[in-house]
Amino acid sequence: MTRSIDRDNQRFKEIVRGKVRQGLKKYITHGEILGRKGRETVSIPVPNIEIPHFRHGNKGSGGVGQGEGEPGQPIGRGEDADGHGEPGDEQGQHIREAELTIDELAQMLGEELQLPAIQPKGQDTIKAIKTRYNSIRQTGPDSLRHFKRTYKRALRRLIASSEYDPLKPMVVPTREDERFRSWTEVPLPQANAAVIYIMDVSGSMTDDQKEIVRTEAFWIDTWLKSQYDGLQRRYVVHDAVAHEVDEDTFYRVRESGGTRISSAYVAAKTIIERDFPPADWNIYIFQFSDGDNWGEDNTTCLRVIQQDFLPICNLFCYGQVESPYGSGDYLKELRRINSRFENLILSEIKNKDGIYESIRTFLGKGK
């Protein structure tokens, strides 16, 4: 039986989660929870929730509908309605840390953006063999001996042959009594996904633009993890030269320099050839830049995208972050080929508020 206090506690947790859902767009667009992420959970600051109750005022202090008053006159105690006055000892607004799992966040994100479930492409899955111990047999290694079944058979044999003495209950199994656990191998389809994040960290990308990229990457990660059992991620940062980095470096690196996008494509291609055979993996590439690129490099980039990436990727997503220093020309180059490829998705992110629609643009087709 569920105790009343447990029901109340569960109801309170649902109220807190409701508050998070209401403010999810704010969390998505302003990245307030990036620094609060643990391994499996995320702590989200929400306003403290108080149970409604009556608060009694001073007797005879007046109130709504009592005494003389002028339009706009503040109601209630206190001389200084504009906030100026003597220091006080009253409590202020409190913030509660609501701890949610990554799965709960993904569910909220899917509901908020109305994201369809991802359909893994074709037969590109890895068959994982799962061993299930679901039967018994008469032979097998000692490590798989089923003690309980062996004991029961030995006891049954002794009782049937009148050899069992309740006063001296000794049961010694023979070889015929022994039973062993057996197994069957069940092939399970396991959809695996590889995600490669490419971020421009050249001098024209400001810290604000990099923060937008990292915030969007976090939410994309959150959704894809909910769709695939095996999600592998790789990170590439580049200016004129590209480097494969770990997750922590990706979220913290500060660099500068010129821009050569093709160097990042070479690094991404190397990662795919090394770790993710296209026949076995659903591959996603998310590239973020301010659109600045060394002019003669654009031709090389378009060729690599069309020949090496688009034929094997579920999605190739390019998000262009508006920068006061970047030219933004690369997006124009990609638009020349965009209509010919369904899995090439383009997005313009003018500021932090643009993260919300950019995620919907990238993930809204369920690929």
CATH topology of the largest domain: Rossmann fold
Low-confidence segments, ≥5 residues, pLDDT <50?
47-51, 122-127
The quaternary state of the protein chains shown equals single chain
The biggest beta sheet reads:
6 strands, mixed
Number of strands: 10
CATH superfamily of the largest domain: von Willebrand factor, type A domain
Range of strand content: 15-25%
The average pLDDT score comes to: 77
Whole-number radius of gyration? 31 Å
How is the largest sheet built, in terms of strand order? 7-6-5-8-9-10
Strand-pairing-aware structural class? alpha/beta
Q: Total helix count?
A: 10
The helicity comes to 25-40%
Task: State the CATH architecture of the largest domain.
Answer: 3-Layer(aba) Sandwich
CATH domain class name of the largest domain: Alpha Beta
Cα shape: flat
Number of domains: 3
The ordered string of helix (H) and strand (E) elements is HHEEHEHEEHEEHHEHEHEH
Gap from first CA to last CA: 44 Å
Q: Could you please describe the fold and organization of this structure?
A:
With 367 residues, this protein is an alpha/beta fold. It folds into 3 domains: 7-50 and 95-114, no CATH class; 129-187, no CATH class; 191-363, von Willebrand factor, type A domain (Rossmann fold, 3-Layer(aba) Sandwich). 34% of the residues lie in helices and 22% in strands. The chain contains 10 helices and 10 strands. The chain has helices spanning 4-22, 24-30, 102-113, 147-160, 207-227, 247-250, 261-275, 297-309, 329-338, 355-363; strands at 41-47, 95-101, 126-137, 180-190, 192-200, 230-238, 242-245, 282-289, 313-321, 344-349. The chain has a 6-stranded mixed beta sheet with strand order 7-6-5-8-9-10, with helices on both faces. The chain has a two-stranded antiparallel ribbon with strand order 1-2. Strands 3-4 form a two-stranded antiparallel ribbon. Helix 9 links the parallel strand 9 (313-321) and strand 10. Helix 7 (261-275) packs parallel to helix 8. The protein is flat. The model is unreliable at 47-51 and 122-127 (pLDDT under 50).
